[in-house]
């Protein structure tokens, strides 16, 4: 099966406004003044083009029986003009749409692009194929040649709207997968779990270095017909065997690729596959069982600090850690290098650590204790939270099985300090937890056994320890030890 996507770049830059045919690259280096200031000074106007609203359904309908016409279809997305007597000519340099570069032609003051290239740029810019009107910022860089022979850089922005093709309606019955990993058995498809609006998830186990698969609308599994029940609802990719871990989908009747091809998963492992039928895309990620942290204070791999899994939340982990000012950290799914990440993750710093991307690492600006909630699934997210720890249940000050500030531990100021609980309200079995993200307290609980902090993680209920009323819990997370006294 061959790649069936039509992507054509037809245009060459360099045509100028006015009679002069000098190319920009032949001019002296333009002055370094602000391009926006130059546009204002020399009255260079940037405006929307004549094709300010493009509907891809209409474009494909226009060329339904003429694929060659579709390949050369173009739209004018911006225009440049100036009546300033100091300008001899204007040369086009480049154009991008919402930050995505696109080939363009410039003639008679008009910026023209291939319609299919623009549609692809929209797909990349919004990471979506959803049938939603998109407002695009068209950023044009140019150079004006003055009558003095000098050249000045100029730039401006116009807007254009594009609506991608209509996508299939979301299946009320849900979705399933078939592939090499289940021998394409139509009677036993892998049913995907609904996890959100238009979002579905499944875990697959591959046994070959490359495993082909496709998505399907859910169907009656009693003797299904491939022609009548299965193939009409297939979702695939533009290219057969594409092993990209994030990709867009195509469907039966998709005018840009009417025959969905089978993507593939590379490697032998357990994988989480997430399907997004709103944006017509999917992601593939190795199912993560463990997560470790290293960094500048850990000898960059000499030591790996293990994070604790959140019970029943696949691929999510937490830890209480002291970060030094200027400390760099990274994460990996094993205590060693490989598939590691840091600066690539989405960062939500609610606790003020000043955690930012520093290349592929994460850099902390403000020293202190923090709770790190790290997601390593199809998305990689690092949430930096306040290191709040609570008593809960019979030993809590209020005796309730609810997280409350009255049961919060004090937080030490130094790296070697102890977190100290309020005095136990009664003699009972002690229960402690952190609390965030709406998770039930028991999913993030821990205990002190034989002087060591022991986490429940994804395991069963822990061994219980009885304490006396009036005692307190003392926790040293740097050394991983604790006591009740």
From TrEMBL:
Location of the Outer membrane protein SusF/SusE-like C-terminal domain: 291-378, 388-482
Domain of life, per lineage: Bacteria
InterPro entries attached to this UniProt entry: CBM_1st_SusF, SusF/SusE-like_C, SusF_N
MF terms (GO), sorted A to Z: starch binding
N-terminal signal peptide: 1-21
Span of domain Outer membrane protein SusF N-terminal: 20-164
CDD domains: CBM-Eb_CBM-Fb, CBM-Ec_CBM-Fc, CBM-Fa
Domain SusF first starch specific CBM: 169-285
GO cellular component: outer membrane
Keywords annotated in UniProt: Signal
Protein name: DUF5115 domain-containing protein
């Amino acid at each position: 099966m061959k790649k069936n996507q039509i992507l054509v770049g037809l245009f060459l830059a360099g045509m100028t406004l006015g009679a002069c045919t000098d190319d920009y690259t032949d001019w002296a280096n333009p002055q370094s003044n602000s391009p926006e200031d130059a546009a204002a000074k020399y009255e260079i106007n940037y405006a929307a083009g004549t094709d300010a609203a493009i509907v891809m359904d209409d474009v494909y309908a226009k060329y339904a029986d003429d694929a060659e016409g579709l390949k050369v279809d173009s739209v004018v997305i911006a225009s440049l003009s100036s009546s300033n007597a100091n300008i001899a000519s204007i040369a086009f340099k480049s154009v991008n749409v919402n930050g995505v570069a696109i080939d363009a032609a410039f003639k008679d003051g008009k910026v023209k692009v291939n319609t299919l290239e623009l549609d692809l740029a929209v797909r990349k810019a919004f990471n979506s194929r959803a049938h939603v009107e998109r407002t695009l910022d068209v950023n044009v860089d140019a150079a004006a040649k003055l009558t003095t022979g000098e050249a000045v850089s100029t730039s401006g922005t116009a807007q254009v709207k594009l609506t991608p093709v209509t996508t299939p309606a979301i299946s009320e019955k849900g979705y399933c997968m078939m592939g090499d990993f289940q021998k394409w058995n139509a009677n036993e498809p892998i049913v995907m779990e609904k996890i959100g609006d238009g979002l579905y998830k499944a875990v697959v186990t591959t046994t070959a270095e490359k495993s082909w698969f496709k998505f399907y609308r859910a169907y009656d599994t009693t003797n299904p017909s491939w022609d009548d029940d299965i193939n009409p609802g297939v979702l695939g990719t533009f290219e057969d065997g594409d092993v990209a871990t994030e990709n867009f989908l195509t469907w039966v009747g998709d005018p840009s690729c009417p025959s969905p091809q089978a993507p593939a998963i590379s490697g032998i492992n357990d994988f989480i596959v997430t399907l997004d039928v709103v944006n017509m895309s999917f992601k593939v990620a190795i199912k993560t069982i463990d997560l470790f942290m290293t960094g500048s204070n850990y000898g960059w791999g000499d030591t790996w600090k293990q994070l604790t899994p959140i019970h029943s939340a696949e691929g999510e982990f937490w830890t209480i850690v002291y970060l030094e000012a200027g400390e760099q950290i990274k994460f990996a799914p094993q205590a060693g290098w490989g598939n590691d990440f840091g600066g690539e993750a989405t960062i939500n710093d609610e606790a003020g650590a000043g955690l930012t991307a520093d290349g592929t690492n994460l850099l902390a600006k403000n020293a202190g204790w923090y709770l790190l909630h790290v997601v390593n699934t199809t998305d990689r997210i690092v949430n930096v939270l306040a290191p709040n720890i609570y008593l809960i249940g019979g030993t809590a000050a209020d005796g309730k099985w609810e997280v409350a500030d009255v049961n919060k531990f004090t937080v030490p100021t130094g790296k070697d300090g102890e977190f100290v609980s309020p005095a136990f309200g009664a003699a009972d079995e002690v229960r402690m937890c952190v609390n965030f993200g709406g998770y039930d307290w028991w999913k993030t609980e821990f205990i002190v056994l034989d002087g060591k902090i022991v986490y429940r993680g994804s395991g069963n209920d822990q061994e219980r320890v009885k304490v006396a009323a009036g005692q307190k819990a003392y926790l040293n997370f740097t050394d991983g030890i604790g006591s009740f006294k």
